[in-house]
Design a protein that fits this description.
Elements (H helix, E strand, L loop, with lengths): L5 H35 L3 H25 L6 H17 L1 H19 L3 H33 L7 H31 L1 H26 L24 H30 L3 H29 L4 H26 L1 H8 L4 H36 L7 H31 L1 H22 L5 H19 L6 H4 L1 H5 L10 H11 L7
Helix pairs in contact: 1-2, 1-4, 1-5, 1-6, 1-7, 2-5, 2-13, 3-5, 3-7, 4-5, 5-13, 6-7, 6-9, 6-12, 8-9, 8-12, 8-13, 8-14, 9-12, 10-12, 10-14, 11-12, 12-13, 13-14, 14-15
Length: about 500
């Protein structure tokens, strides 16, 4: 039997570490959401805080640590130390949040019932506790891209491989925390297990760094791509970073609105939310896998690639929107076929989630490594690879923060869920137009097709399609006398008592 080479062994070890890291990261996110419920109550404040701090920490860590690690002699050893620090800070996070709650109780009498001051105190305390581990998490991705240089010379191959491996770990972490760890073991053991995963990843990475001798040939000046695509002859780095930030905004706008819409049809329990999040992450992983195959064949990522992903994102999102009433009608069908069991409920939730936004998530997953390669190859980019990945990741994540805030606090109340999806699809199509105009050789056909699609989306969004009373009051129909004649109110009540375990208090 042929023994694996040291290079392949170290590559496998690095990928295993990032898989474990992705699993731990999402376990933390779900657990912290629960823990913040004890501070803010189980409200939008708890969810908004953990999302904002989680993403802000990732953005800051990827940008700062990615730039700082440029000339590090042994990036794998540096990654190992980061994982160990993430595990240590993650293990202490619940104690820190408990201290924030104690501080809130102590400060309550002195604040005189001033809710805005108390809310600010809780937010700042929680942000301080959670920012440290998330900042460290953000630095792991650009460092590993640098570490994998000896295994693959192509930036796009490394970025896509690491991205989908880490995202698959995130899918596992989401499902484990929502379905197993929190219901069975509770909050403290769940966080402790996540910390153990980080410690395990750190120890494996230390072993890889020691045995593979990665230090040789890594240090030196930042690596640059040897050639550029023809349309990348002008300085496009800042332009691409800005557009990538807008893409991040659209991704979270879709995620928030589809989550709100799907909660009407499949419920808003912990299990439903877990499946929706896992489905979106799974789509991102699949899209990144597709890019790895595409990049391995063509070795080219161009502005045309970026433009096409935005066109398809808009088209697929609107198609899912138009098909939503029929997708939602699958819920009672699946429940009948599975005799209204808990497994049937989970299956129905997954099918509806997958049909609704899995295609959109796949395009987003393909888009991430493609844009990172574009930024790395742009003539105005003077950074090395880890700094380039860090900047791209930070721009996308900051855009996601802005998109989540604008969508959750303004767009949904102004336009409504359905029209927010249509509006966001228009943004993606406008990005495609902007990219087409940037090309040195513009395709009139592609430009015209995008403009026609924008017009079509505007017509759909402005039409009376979403004024259908039965569609807009889908939740009332579901929990009223019947759901399209299949489930009566008493049947639903019986089904909920039988299907949903008592541990699910959401």
């Amino acid at each position: 039997m042929k023994k694996a080479s040291p290079s392949h062994q170290s590559s496998f070890g690095i990928l295993l570490c990032f898989l474990l890291s992705g699993t731990a990261g999402l376990v933390y996110q779900v657990a912290w959401s629960k823990a913040l419920g004890l501070i803010f109550g189980h409200t939008v404040y708890a969810i908004s805080t953990v999302l904002a701090v989680f993403m802000a920490g990732l953005a800051a860590g990827s940008a700062y640590i990615g730039r700082w690690a440029e000339d590090h002699a042994n990036p794998t050893a540096l990654y190992a130390r980061l994982e160990l620090l993430v595990g240590a800070s993650g293990a202490l996070s619940l104690a820190g949040l408990a201290a924030v709650r104690w501080l809130y109780l102590v400060a309550y009498p002195a604040a005189g019932g001033l809710q805005s001051l108390l809310l600010l105190l809780r937010f700042l305390g929680a942000a301080l506790v959670l920012f440290i581990p998330t900042f460290l998490m953000g630095g792991t991705f650009p460092i590993l891209v640098q570490s994998m240089r000896r295994h693959s010379a192509e930036l796009g191959n490394r970025v896509s491989l690491l991205y989908w491996i880490n995202t698959l770990g995130a899918v596992a972490g989401t499902l484990l925390s929502g379905f197993v760890l929190l219901p069975v073991f509770g909050l403290h053991i769940t966080v402790a297990l996540a910390a153990l995963l980080n410690l395990l990843a750190g120890l494996i990475a230390l072993r890889v760094a020691k045995s593979a001798g990665i230090a040789q040939g890594i240090a030196g000046s930042p690596a640059k791509a040897p050639s550029l695509a023809p349309e990348m002859t002008r300085d496009a780095s800042t332009f691409l970073l800005f557009l990538f930030g807008v893409v991040g905004s659209t991704a979270f706008a879709y995620e928030i609105t589809w989550t709100r819409l799907l909660s009407i049809t499949i419920g808003s329990s912990t299990y439903a939310f877990t499946l929706m999040l896992a489905t979106f992450l799974l789509g991102s992983a699949i899209g990144s896998m597709f890019f790895q195959r595409y990049f391995a064949r063509s070795r080219v990522a161009s502005l045309v690639t970026f433009s096409r992903t935005q066109t398809w994102t808009g088209i697929v999102a609107v198609a899912s929107l138009l098909l939503f009433p029929w997708i939602a009608s699958l819920v009672p069908l699946v429940l009948r076929l599975t005799h209204q069991t808990f497994g049937g409920l989970v299956l129905a939730q997954f099918i509806v989630s997958a049909l609704t936004f899995l295609p959109t998530a796949i395009v987003f997953g393909f888009n991430f490594p493609a844009v990172v390669v574009l930024i790395g190859h742009s003539s105005g980019n003077q950074s090395g690879e880890s700094a380039t990945v860090g900047k791209a990741y930070a721009a996308n994540t900051l855009g996601a923060i802005l998109g989540s805030l604008v969508t959750g606090f303004w767009l949904v109340s102004w336009l409504g869920n359905f029209r927010v999806v249509a509006f966001t699809a228009c943004v993606n199509l406008l990005l495609a137009v902007a990219l087409e105009l940037r090309l040195s050789r513009r395709s009139v056909l592609s430009l015209a097709a995008n403009l026609v699609c924008i017009l079509g989306v505007i017509v759909v969004g402005a039409s009376s399609l979403f004024h259908n009373k039965s569609l807009m009051s889908l939740s009332a129909v579901l929990y009223g006398n019947s759901y399209q004649g299949h489930l009566t109110l008493s049947e639903i009540a019986t089904w909920e008592r039988r299907c949903i375990p008592p541990r699910d208090a959401s």
